[in-house]
Amino acid sequence: MWSYLFKRLLHMIPLLLGVSLLTFLLMALAPGDYFTALSQNPQISPETIAHLKARFHLDQPWYVQYFYWLKSVLSGDFGYSMAYKIPATSLIVQRLWNTFLLSFFAMIIAWGIALPLGIWAAVKKDSWIDRGCSLAAFLGLSVPDVLLSLLALWFAAATGWFPVGGAQSPVNDLMSPAQQFWDRAHHLILPALVLAAADWAGIMRQMRSNLLDTLRAEYVTAARARGLGEGWVIYKHALRNAINPLLTIFGYSLAALLSGAFIVENIMAWPGLGRLTMEAFFAKDSYLVVDCVVMATGLLVVGNFIADLLLAWSDPRIRLNK
Amino acid sequence: MNLLEIKNLKMDFGIGADALRAVDGVSLTIGAGETVCLVGESGCGKTVTALSIARLVPAPPANYVGGEILLNGRDVLKMSNRELRDIRGGVVSYVFQEPGASLNPVFRIGNQIKESLKLHRPIGTPAPGTARTNETNTPCQRPALQDYDAEVIRLLKLVGIPAPESRIKNYPFEMSGGMQQRVMIAMALASEPKLLVADEPTTALDVTIQAQILELLHGLKQRLGMAILLITHNLGIVGDMADRVAVMYAGQIVELSPAKELLRRPLHPYTKALMNAVPKLAGGANRLSAIPGNVPRIGNFPPACRFAPRCPMAKPECSEKIPELVEVEAGRWVRCPFWK
Amino acid sequence: METATALLTAEAKAPLSPWQLFRRRLKRRRIAMAGGVILIGLYLMALFAGFIAPYHFERQDRDRFFHPPLWPKLSGFHLVVPRYEAGDGSFVYHLVAGDTKPLRFFIRGDKYKLLCLIPATIHLFGTGDENYPAYLLGTDQFGRDVLSRLLYGSQISLSIGIVGILLSFTFGMMIGGISGYFGGRTDTVIMRLCELIMSIPALYLIISLRATFPPGMSSAQVYAMIIIILSFIGWASMARVIRGMTLSLREQQFVLAARALGQTHLKVIVRHILPNTFSYVIVAATLSVPYYILGEVVLSFLGVGIQEPNASWGNMLTAAQNTEYLRNYPWLLAPGTAIFVTVLAFNFLGDGLRDAADTKS
Ligand SMILES: Nc1ncnc2c1ncn2[C@@H]1O[C@H](COP(=O)(O)OP(=O)(O)OP(=O)(O)O)[C@@H](O)[C@H]1O
Ligand SMILES: [Mg+2]
User: Fold this and answer.
1) In terms of Cα–Cα distance, which of A56, A244, A140 is closest to B104?
2) Ligand 1, from B44, B230, B249: best to mutate by most atoms within 8 Å of Cβ?
3) What percent of chain C lies above the pLDDT cut of 90?
4) Which residues in chain A touch residue B116, judged by CB atoms under 8 angstroms apart?
5) Candidate of B18, B48, B102 to mutate for ligand 1, largest count of ligand atoms within 8 Å of Cβ
6) Of all residues in chain C, what percent are helix, strand and coil, respectively (each to 5)?
7) ipTM of the complex
């Protein structure tokens, strides 16, 4: 198992390097940079701009820039955000944390809904419960994140039960720790629900079809033939095997989740990586865009690695190989 | 009283207009300690019949439309779920064709066997069963189980697994097919059944292993005194094992006879054809019969004699009159009026 | 011998061709058929958008911002539209009781090009009177008819799905076929590239790609850009699956035979291998179209796709981001509903196609 995990871990490094190189290349291809707009400003002398460009190595070819960028990132420094005029590291870390929080809670909600429903639908195959679940899943699968987010905004504005956007209220700093926690949670609930609502359907359908597959397996018949009760057969023998393929689709589901989070963040003003990406994009702060893309990919890659860990833990065929 | 008595069993897949008759009027008895072989080409309904004994065919799509299955005198088709669970394992145990597929891949084999023990022979409750001791072969009160692990090891030893102590912690994928099948057999024996149904237990195995497994089954039967229903599509293995043989074709039994006599003098044209199709090389698991024509598919059976289209001695009336299964000699039943 | 028997038994079971079987199974799935019918309707509407839309998508009614949707009523033998009046300077509209105008069909109105080619002025319906507008779905913040913009927008949003799929799947099939057919280093490089593209969360990659295009593009250029961006991402997953299928197909008899006959590699891939993947490709394409439609919607919604005054379902929704608008003028969400219905129809159809193509059941 260790060699398997080590291989997976080793696999992440070239992947992240490749992703950063690709985004860097794309940013180099982008017309104009942060200073294009700045140079229109008569108050800033061309010398100042040239000086600034040199400081950020923007006068060098892109691959040289890349190595400077890589070097500082590897030492934990994401440089300086020209658009925000603050060190990018703290900015990125904070936004990454927010995106993680949002995705994590959305994931818990989505899986928490999807797994029981999927199991229920599979066990009661072809009943009205199954039909209802599958119809609901179709609706959930088809409703666009954009529409859901807008509806949530409308809901928040109309009822006043939830804050309209943001991750915390402006006065959060003045609150007691308990109040702060509640304030943050209050801001998190709606975006997380929206994201979960866009995400649960695929997982539920997968759970249902996995369980139906394992319920057809011969070892399930064999378990029944030994006189084991139907509940035991389903929840121990079949379900235990239906979980493993779910873990392998975890990666896809996480990728979809992060894309969904991108939309939710931008519409519901949740200060995460997706929103930062758009802000950096509009400000032409290309280093920051690269940072965001690499960070988001990193989140996905780490998520996948955790799924691999879980799979190795849950599937003896992987755990015991070599 | 016979241990198992299947009377005129009729089973469909699907209901109403979509119904396809998979088992059509099968009758079969198995006495205690008897070995019966069920032979027939692929798709003729052997597995479905065998699974019906413990009502293991999922319903729907299965739909029992007639007949009864008396196990120890009680009709399986009328049992409650509770009673069904008791007879599954308790009275009848199964060994399937693909040992790799019938063992749960994510649980250790020791635990899977223990599961059966806990269910049917929990620690401390002496069973009223009539297990026989090895030496005298006389019924006696079996003492209560003391220790699951010890019993698992004893069972694994019984089925000939070397170093069972180190094997109980193994997962199924860590064993060879032959070993897996032995584990399946141990698991089937764990609940001390009166009837062991072995559904093509050797088809998926290597030729040399096949012989070993059959040997094992035969030996176990002698020692434990249980009845065996052995399903196979290979008449070649019948002689060594069976007391009686039932030949199945397209959902019906076409010949039922003591094994020795059947092998010496098959009566039904289909049995004869099957005998000729037995590979001359010992144990060659040839799933393709050399009988010309195709196996009729379920729902597409010929109207009268189902074998008529492939029968070398078919007469015009074979496609008109439905033949009955009749006892033509003592203990020999044939579904063909032209058996002579 | 073995294949012969298998063929014979298969025939005995169903003397239908696989295609007939597929159609028969599809017909049994009513929901899939419903999805297909809805889609045909939507695409026809997009095709004849100019004719169905009562107004031109750029036409502004400066007297009627945020006009509410109105329902034509039956009066005698005519459908009539009621009239709404706003208080001075406010966007609060009141129904003027009893003041109606009959709705007329095939009426002359704004100029448009039928099928984007033939100049025409006849519209399906309208009132022919500026004081009695037929705003069935209301107007937006610039006083433009939402229904007309929705119809014009569907031309962009719906076509991007189809064109994007065609482009990326053709590309993906070719690349996947080449990768699986040749194997070796070509295969490794292509597969690593696919992995790279698929490992970046899609929207982040979309925005990075978007950054490489210059500002101030014409609307046709923007349209092409969106398709290029979405296809750049979409080909990878297709290529991976096709590669897997090619790997097993290339060892099959008919492929070996074609190669033995001395056909070129390209011909073998295109004529013999790829056609065998079609049933998968068609199902995958149907289920993927929504992603292309949603991609356009998100880009335009975020302001980096289709630009005003052109209409797309995405940029029409941008207005709804303003909570004040959203609360008071919920009809601005109409494009969201349109997207929902379209995606749902594609999912219904795709699911039915998959079940029907699935030989297991
Ligand atoms: N769940 C099911 N639904 C519908 N038809 C079924 C089902 N299970 C089995 N059948 C059909 O019932 C018939 C008998 O099947 P069965 O498995 O008993 O054959 P068999 O004699 O055991 O063949 P084999 O030698 O291949 O094991 C076959 O035609 C099969 O297609
Ligand atoms: Mg069978």
Assistant:
1) A244
2) B44
3) 19
4) 226-227
5) B48
6) 65, 10, 25
7) 0.88
DSSP, res C307: P
Q: Tell me the mean pLDDT in the region A138-158.
A: 89
Residue C270 per-residue DSSP state: I
Q: Could you give the 3-state DSSP secondary structure of residue B111?
A: helix
Angle (CA) B200-B204-B205 rounded to 5° is 110
Question: Closest partner residue to B119 among A222, A228, A315, by Cβ?
Answer: A228
Which A residues in the span 18-57 are in contact with C, Cβ-Cβ below 8 Å?
18-19, 22-23, 26-27, 29-32
Chains meeting A at 3+ CB pairs closer than 8 A? Answer: B, C
Residues with CB under 6 A from ligand 1: B 13, 22, 40, 42-48, 61, 233, 298
Cα(B43) to centroid(ligand 1), Å: 5
What is the spatial distance between Cα B311 and Cα B302, in angstroms, rounded to a whole number?
12
Please tell me the distance from the alpha carbon of residue A182 to that of residue A41, in angstroms, as a whole number. 45
Start and end residues for every CATH 1.10.3720.10 domain found in chain C: 149-357
Ligand 1 nearest-atom number relative to CA B13: 4
Question: Are C9 and B295 within 8 A, CB to CB?
Answer: yes
pLDDT over 60 at B281, yes or no: no
Q: Are C160 and C296 in contact (CB under 8 A)?
A: yes
Centre a 10 Å sphere on the Cβ of residue C220 and count the other Cβ atoms it contains: 8
Q: How confident is the model at residue B93 (pLDDT cuts 50, 70, 90)?
A: very high
- The answer to whether the Cβ–Cβ distance between B297 and C9 falls below 8 Å is yes
Instruction: List subunits contacting chain C, requiring 3 or more Cβ pairs under 8 Å.
Output: A, B
- Residue where the block lists tokens 């001695």: B313
Q: How far is the CA of B97 from the centre of ligand 1 (A)?
A: 13
The CATH code that applies to domain C149-357 is 1.10.3720.10
Whether pLDDT at C252 is above 50:
yes
- Among protein residues, the one with the nearest Cα to ligand 1's atom 4 is B13
Give the best residue of C1, C5, C28 to mutate against chain B (max B CB count within 10 A). Answer: C5
| Alpha carbons C82 and C72: distance in angstroms, whole number | 7
Question: pLDDT tier at C97 (50, 70, 90 boundaries)?
Answer: confident
Q: What is the pLDDT of residues A167-204, one digit of tens each?
A: 777 777 777 888 888 888 888 889 999 999 988 998 99
Residue A21's alpha-carbon distances to A24, A69, B154, C23, C150, in angstroms, are 5, 10, 62, 48, 40
According to DSSP, the β-strands at B20-30 and C73-75 are: unpaired
**What was the pLDDT predicted at C89?**
67
What is the mean pLDDT of the segment spanning A156-176? 79
Own/partner contacts of B318-325, CB < 8 Å, gap of 24 or more, are B325/B27, B325/B252, B325/B253, B325/B254, B325/B256
B294/C13 touch (CB, cutoff 8 Å), yes or no: no
Residue A76 — pLDDT band, cuts 50, 70, 90? confident
What mean pLDDT comes out for the span B259-286?
73
pLDDT tens column, A57-71: 777 787 888 888 888
